[in-house]
Amino acid sequence: MQKGLESLAFIFALPHCDPLYEEFENSTPPPPQLPKIEAIHTSLFVDVPDVLSAMPGPLPASLRSRILRLLLLHWAPWAIAEEVHCCPATVYNIQENLFMYNSPFRPQFRPKGAPRKVFKAAENGLIAYLEDQPWAMQKEMVWYIWEEWGINVHRSTISRILKRRRWSNKKGQRVGVRQNDELRLNWVADMLRLTAEQLVFVDESLFNETTGWRHQAYAPVGQPARYQASRTRGHCWSVLPAYTKDGYLSCTGIREGWFNGEAFFRWLADELLPLCSPFPAPRSVIIMDNASVHCNSRIEELITSHGCQVSYLPR
Fold first, then answer.
1. Considering just the CA atoms, what is the radius of gyration of the chain in Å?
2. Which residue, of 101, 144, 156, 231, has the greatest Cβ tally within 10 A?
3. What is the rounded CA–CA span in Å between residue 163 and residue 146?
């Protein structure tokens, strides 16, 4: 109803620039007389194919408003079609919309089809289930919908729900159970008191024959990508660098096998600490992870005895 009133107000608010409209407004002649049935039959079935052959686009707003104005002046639809040079069916549709909906436009109805089996609450429950268990497979989601809401759906329904809610399957990143967000925030806040020049990062890396393996290969569609090569791991080597804002320090340790507690202690005392300075000078804060060879009292006493500080990464 509101849309119809707005449309009528728009029509009467237009400037009266149409000569035909001014003629009717000043002289108010009687509306055109309806012709005989044969004339209507001829105009409808002879003129319409010529109009349809042009395949017009959407009806312009100015032409629609003119048709509506003439309808309000009680013109016959066939006469309006001849006056504005459009298809009579267009005029009849606008007249029908005015009669049924009090508007020249047909209201927009909801999409047709059966209602969705999975209602809004069940969808929200599925999203909450995925937030708690993001590794779940679609067949497990189908079982969850049935077990929790009593709705039997297909996997394609689950796919449409996830696509509509903008959830996708991607490579998961496993986070440790012992990870503590509060400790991480406290560690970041503690790092704010330091400068980048003071930090020295220490970490160990292991290498063997499998390190250079390429895990992507080409093969024909439908066949596995296999190639023959040695599967032995070979010898293991450890690299222990110290990294600063300006790059790696000249104390990188390379060892066959790995660095145990004693080897790490000797490398720290003989190679790294001579290149560091007492706090708060540059290269005075050593940052390490929580490996067992790093977290012991001997290491902390050795670092503090040189006037440096030690900071362990949070879990």
1. 40
2. 144
3. 20
Q: Which helix (H) or strand (E) holds 247?
A: strand 247-248
Q: How many whole angstroms separate alpha carbon 182 and alpha carbon 294?
A: 22
How far is it, in rounded angstroms, from Cα 250 to Cα 214? 31
Closest CA relative to residue 202, chosen from 176, 174, 235, 238: 238
Length of the chain as a residue count: 315
Q: Where are the domains of the chain?
A: 2-101, 120-164, 181-208+233-312
Distance CA 201, CA 241 (A): 8
Token representation of residue 75? 């013109």
pLDDT of residue 16: 43
The single-letter code of the amino acid at 29 is: P
Residue 256's H or E segment, with its range, is strand 253-256
Q: How many CB atoms lie within 10 A of CB 279?
A: 15
> Hey, is 312 helix, strand or coil?
strand
Pair 283, 258: CB distance under 8 Å:
no
Q: Letter for the amino acid at 175?
A: V
pLDDT of 159 reads 93
Residue 277 CB neighbours (<10 A) = 14
Given a cut of 50, the residues of the chain with pLDDT beneath it are 1-3, 5, 8-29, 34-54
Q: What residues contact 47, with CB distance under 8 A and at least 6 apart? A: 81, 88
Q: Residue 90: in which H helix or E strand, if any?
A: helix 88-101
Give, in words, the CATH class of 181-208+233-312. Answer: alpha beta
Angle at 116 between CA 112 and CA 121, to 5 degrees: 140
